[in-house]
Design brief:
By secondary structure, the chain is α/β, with parallel strands linked by helices. It has 12 helices and 14 strands.
């Protein structure tokens, strides 16, 4: 079955969706809508699809059965509800939304209208991350001791001034944690399991005149007894690759973006040398460390393929809406701890 896609929101991430859709044999990009008519027309011309005059017109088009929500982070709810109530499957860029209440409204609408709703977290589809998750599930780490995520990036003042929603708390839901580090927040929770408590600090250090944090650090206590940290910034010049460290009593793995730094276990297998050789090479993308457009489309492509397969087989995708909400819950706990100067228990 050929799936017709629509995109609501024509910012930079929409182009990643469009290119991924174009690569898939069973998918076709039918059209786009953005509140800025000029952006809608430009995007439509660039990606050879229809420029719709409203979100409602796009959602009511019979040739579209899947809608990608690529609007600003705090403005996912309304277009998502428009798509869902029109009976369309819905793919929502990270974060799912910026409050638990708004996330729940999306989840409930998806159940009510019997459509698939998925949140975008493409790092879970990286092959090296899949190998790491497999090693965790096989018990190769022994007891998990620590799980850490570091996202130390750089964004210029123009990054915030040229696209106004990024600096607005209402439109973005937050800064370095909600909109940059949330991929690693999701990945860390996927690897380590649920978090039981958070103690965090955040602030605005390297930028001026914006409403969101550009630096944050959180200490985590996981339900399995392990501890960890999340560090996030958009003020670190020149910016560094994302780093994940999963450390246990019988083995440890460190990954920088998609490059393997350490893969070492007490009990080695024949496959370990193959994994080290395969994933220890040079970086394949800029990783978005100082340029938000310097990312690969491959993760989105792999996730869209997973979603299409789920639609065709009538099952849940790897990251459904309730699963995507969990990263938002952890981000909001970090913000609550930093704001109220106390430990937050989840």
């Amino acid at each position: 079955m050929k799936h017709g896609f629509g995109i609501i929101g024509a910012g930079s991430i929409a182009g990643v969706h469009a290119r991924a859709i174009d690569t898939i044999m069973d998918a076709e990009l039918v059209g786009v809508f953005d509140h800025n008519p000029g952006k809608t027309r430009t995007f439509g011309n660039t990606y050879k699809c229809k420029a719709f005059d409203s979100a409602e017109e796009l959602c009511n088009d019979d040739s579209i059965d899947v809608v990608c929500i690529c609007t600003p982070s705090g403005k996912h709810l309304e277009p998502a509800l428009a798509a869902i109530t029109a009976g369309k499957h819905c793919i929502i860029e990270k974060p799912l939304e910026t409050s638990i209440e708004r996330c729940n409204m999306i989840i409930e609408a998806g159940v009510k209208h019997n459509v698939l709703v998925s949140g975008i977290f493409p790092m879970r589809f990286s092959k090296v991350n899949i190998e790491l998750k497999k090693a965790i599930d096989q018990g190769r780490f022994g007891k998990l001791v620590m799980g850490d995520a570091y996202v130390k990036w750089f964004r210029t003042p123009e990054y915030y001034s040229e696209v106004k929603w990024r600096s607005s708390l209402a439109s973005s839901g937050g800064g370095a944690v909600m909109n940059q580090a949330i991929h690693s927040v999701d990945l860390l929770r996927w690897f380590m399991g649920n978090v039981s408590a958070v103690c965090a600090f955040s602030g605005l250090v390297g930028h001026e005149g914006i409403e969101v944090e550009d630096v944050a650090a959180a200490t985590l206590k996981f339900e399995n007894g392990a501890v960890g940290v999340i560090e996030a910034s958009t003020a670190v010049n020149p910016g560094f690759y994302r780093r994940i460290e999963i450390l246990g009593t019988r083995g440890s793995v460190i990954i920088e973006e998609e490059r393997l730094i350490t893969w070492k276990f007490e009990e080695e297998t024949e496959e370990d040398d193959i994994i080290r050789e395969r994933y220890s090479g040079s970086h394949v993308t800029g990783g978005g460390v100082s340029d938000p457009k310097a990312i690969s489309d491959l993760g989105h492509l792999r996730q869209l393929l997973n979603i299409i397969k789920a639609i065709d087989n009538g099952r849940s995708p790897a990251i459904d809406a309730p699963e995507a909400k969990k990263a938002v819950e952890l981000v909001l706990a970090i913000y609550a701890s930093a704001k109220n100067k106390r430990i937050v228990y989840l």
